[in-house]
Amino acid sequence: MARIDELRLMAKVARMYHTQGMRQTAICDRLNIHQSTVSRVLKRAEREGIVRITVSLPPGTHTEIEESLQAHYGLDDAVVVDCLDDETQIAHDLGAAAAFYIENTLKPRDVIGISSWSAALLHMVNAMHPSQRSRNNRVIQILGGVGSPNAEVHATQVTRRLADLIGGEATLLPAPGVVGSRSARDVLLKDRFVREALDLFPRVTLALVGIGATEPSRGLASSGNIFSPQEIKLLAGKGAVGDICLRFFDASGSQVVTELNDRVISMELAQLRSVQRIVGVAGGKRKTHAIRGALAGKLINVLITDLASAERLIAGAHVEVQAAASALRGRKARKPI
């Protein structure tokens, strides 16, 4: 326990600094003590309970849940948004949150890869404000966007509008996301403009991706860039839980290997993992298993999702930890003496 004269100094310095708003240099001059003494006394005032710092979180913010997601899944960042339990509203709200995130984290000369068919990413570009802070940026479409005429507008709008908003240059991927055969894909890969986009994939420093469930969303289905019901059944039978850029993965985040992969024109999962910052924007109960698989496979390192999905992901992580601990205890119990 500190002596009364030490407590008196702590109380005086803490009041001057925290209550009266005086700077440490001003306190030094007033009390004729060294600045290192002021700093030491303020830290000790916290340890002694004279100063107690609290953070009052505004309604609608979920910092603790975001930190829990980061801890459980090794994320660099997480953004959790209050949403109504409606797919359209979730896409709208997550898009708005993603817009704020990009506006505040975009770096000069970032090369942005963006998926074409995410409703949340379309809402993101619609919510963003024009900015000239980050020059020399490039936006690359990393999933083929050619499909039905109305849907194709969606794909090109996401890429071009984002480039316009940040004062960057857009590179489109003028090919379907899914083609009818491997030979058709091989022909398209020889196209000069398709090749130009693909050759830029290794330069991507920031990937913005949606995370799809095995069953395609309405937007993706309307584009025509989907597999048949029989092919979806084949993927599910191989353990697929979701996709990024139409590259399907299982619950551990490992790629599901089928011949269907040879008909997709998009960034490969191995390429995606090499990107410095991979932002997944997805939510809703239908996508929970897909999001968890993407997290397990380290396919994203930033997640923007809704509160209900975040809570399901954390609960699932707790169950996995308990199961692993139980299995470890079982192995120790069976270990021969």
Q: Which spans of ≥5 residues are poorly predicted at pLDDT below 50?
A: none
- Mean of all residue-level pLDDT scores: 87
**Proportion of residues in helical segments:** 40-55%
Protein structure class: alpha/beta
Beginning-to-end CA distance, first to last residue = 51 Å
- How are the strands of the largest sheet arranged? 1-10-9-5-2-3-4
Number of strand elements: 10
- CATH fold call of the largest domain: Rossmann fold
Number of helices: 14
Return the CATH architecture of the largest domain: 3-Layer(aba) Sandwich
Radius of gyration, whole Å: 26 Å
Q: H/E element string?
A: HHHHEHEHEHEHHEEHHEEHEHEH
CATH class of the largest domain: Alpha Beta
The portion of residues forming beta strands comes to 5-15%
Largest sheet at a glance? Answer: 7 strands, parallel
As for the number of domains, it is: 2
The rough form would be described as: elongated
Structure description:
Helix content is 50%, strand content 11%. The protein is built from 14 helices and ten strands. It has two domains: 4-47, Homeodomain-like (Arc Repressor Mutant, subunit A); 63-320, Rossmann fold. By secondary structure, the protein is α/β, with parallel strands linked by helices. The longest helix has 28 residues, at 307-334. Helix 1 packs across helix 3 (35-47) and helix 5 crosses helix 6 (119-127). A seven-stranded parallel beta sheet has the order 1-10-9-5-2-3-4, sandwiched between helices. Strands 6-7-8 form a three-stranded antiparallel beta sheet, covered by helices on one side.
Outline the secondary-structure elements.
Layout: H1 4-19, H2 24-31, H3 35-47, H4 63-73, E1 77-81, H5 87-105, E2 111-114, H6 119-127, E3 138-141, H7 149-165, E4 169-171, H8 182-189, H9 192-200, E5 206-209, E6 212-213, H10 218-223, H11 229-237, E7 242-244, E8 247-249, H12 269-273, E9 277-281, H13 288-296, E10 302-306, H14 307-334
Parallel strand pairs: 1-10, 2-3, 2-5, 3-4, 5-9, 9-10
Antiparallel strand pairs: 6-7, 7-8
Helix pairs in contact: 1-3, 4-14, 5-6, 6-7
